[in-house]
Amino acid sequence: MLAIGLMSGTSLDGVDAAVIETDGETVVRTGKTACLLYEEPLRLRLRALLDAAPGLALDDPEIVALSRVIADRHAEAVAMLACRAEIAGFHGQTILHDPPSRRTWQIGDAARLAHKIRLPVASDFRSADVAAGGEGAPLVPLFHAAMAARLEKPLLIVNIGGVANITFLGSDG
């Protein structure tokens, strides 16, 4: 199965897209990648939203408008890959992230994205992880383990993005 992964970090730089081939449990092969940069006006709108998010409602006009824009930009990134995937993973754009308070909020209209790319879209990965006491990045350790499968262990991976995270891969995998 070919799957597309989409990521837009809190650095607000844009959308990263990648294709993998999977048997449903392991990465069989990595494929094409693409990066679609956000234009400066969009970055400024998102930055303002990061500051305002704690006081906003789900139906705030700017939230609704930017959710559509985020879906559209992700659809553009998918088009850059030019592949026949069977599913896409989309976590949206984080505008509020406070794991100790068990709060996280990502915008991005997953239904709109699914319609535009004509694929099923799996989304909202962070919410359940944060609600369960996690940091809201449930897929990062799995990704790191897949990418480092052939590297010597133990291994420490540091991802320095808008929110940094660390993955430790022990000798046992």
Q: Could you write a compact summary of the structure shown?
A:
The protein is built from five helices and eight strands. It is of the alpha/beta class. Strands 1, 2, 3, 4, 5 and 6 form a six-stranded mixed sheet that branches. Strands 7-8 form a two-stranded antiparallel sheet.
Topology:
Elements: E1 2-8, E2 14-22, E3 27-37, H1 40-52, H2 61-81, E4 87-98, E5 103-107, H3 110-117, E6 121-123, H4 125-131, H5 140-147, E7 155-159, E8 165-169
Parallel strand pairs: 1-4, 4-6
Antiparallel strand pairs: 1-2, 2-3, 4-5, 7-8
Helix pairs in contact: 2-3
Question: What does this protein look like?
Answer:
This protein has helices spanning 40-52, 61-81, 110-117, 125-131, 140-147, and strands at residues 2-8, 14-22, 27-37, 87-98, 103-107, 121-123, 155-159, 165-169. The chain is α/β, with parallel strands linked by helices. It folds into 2 domains: 2-134, Nucleotidyltransferase, domain 5, CATH 3.30.420; 139-173, no CATH class. The strands form 2 sheets. Strands 1, 2, 3, 4, 5 and 6 form a 6-stranded mixed sheet that branches. A hairpin with a 4-residue loop joins strand 2 and strand 3. Helix 2 packs parallel to helix 3 (110-117). The model has no long low-confidence stretch (mean pLDDT 91).
Spans where pLDDT lies below 50 across 5 or more residues: none
What Rg, in angstroms, do the CA atoms define? 16 Å
Look at the structure and name the CATH superfamily of the largest domain: ATPase, nucleotide binding domain
Strand share of the residues?
A: 25-35%
CATH class term of the largest domain: Alpha Beta
